[in-house]
User: What shape does this take?
Amino acid sequence: MIDSRIVITGLGLTSPNGNNLSEYRQSLLSGKSGISNIETRYMGTVHAGMCDFEATRYQKRKEIRVGTRGGSIAIYCAREALADSGLELEKLNPARIGVYLGITEHGNVETENEIYNISQFNYDTKFWSHHHNPRTVANNPAGEVTVNMGITGPHYTIGAACAAGNAGLIQGVQMLRLGEVDQAFCGGVSESPHTFGIFAAFKSQGALAQNADPAQACRPFDHSRNGIVVSEGGCIYTLERLEDAQKRGAKIYGEVIGYALNSDANDFVLPFHTRQAECMHQALKRAQLTAADVDIVSTHATATKLGDIQECMAVRAVFDESPSTFVNNTKSFIGHTMGAAGALELAGNLPSFEDGMVHPTINLDEIDPECSLKGLLANEPREVSKGVRIILNNSFGMLGINSAVIIRKFTD
Assistant: This one.
């Protein structure tokens, strides 16, 4: 089965500006930001992207209390991906379904909150939740999905920093091709804004965005960009082998034809354009494509000064001679959804296969000359007369992990 063609047949998401693909896509085409101000412990007001999905659609209130925010996001997205795929869970072999979810981190939200809670009671551990251990194990979001849906096949999370959403998708492809499972729920989730520590850490690095208008705080490539907006969200895909999808007449969003993962081996935090370019080249090689074949490059760009410059150097190295390739960014709308970023950003571009539109990067008022890119789309969407056939999705993370995924419009 190693050469099996793998297709996307379902998609479920929650983002700061939409709780399904239709809402999300409309927000991206209309320029609607999902960033607002929230209050966080010890720091006061910060910008963040928060989701407003109906958790009780798929969970009882007690289950929500016992589980985690990341788990609720994962369950919502997985259930939506199942419904969208047209698969009927009761007719599937639960032992042949896999759940592979990318995460940036898991457990620090619960630990931080529990420590704060017992600090109000003189650190008396009798006030420590007995649910703490299952909440904080690293496999929690994927595990909560299996408990909720009765899936008995393999589940685990992939800790790949902010490349994790792509990594979850790649894992699903690989397990289907190995014949380990027949359906895979894969993608990424994040609950990061529920801990003050992530805000404090980015602020101490000088990398936390600040703006008088929260909707304009995330400004990738812009001369006035000043850092990251921390957000939550999730996006999970239903993946199947092509022959199985066709046999049941499933709708197909696209085919996964290329991917790559590599490491900078360079720095804890600072990215390295050479390795990022190599990652994109590896994905193109696996897909048997040239740069000129790619219609959209979805950038990772987080709106940090050096990070954006490094990625732009990488994109220029690969695509500078590709005049028909558009470049866009989704974080400008929703902030940085960490472990969900790659999966959510890909989802925002998938409808381009059908409507021929490329969503822009917003808040791009004065481009940083060091971020100049051919095909970079600013502030207004663009219709592609020849249509969109190939999307390359970049997603990079701390400790130098890089990922690229390539999706092709399905036509046969």
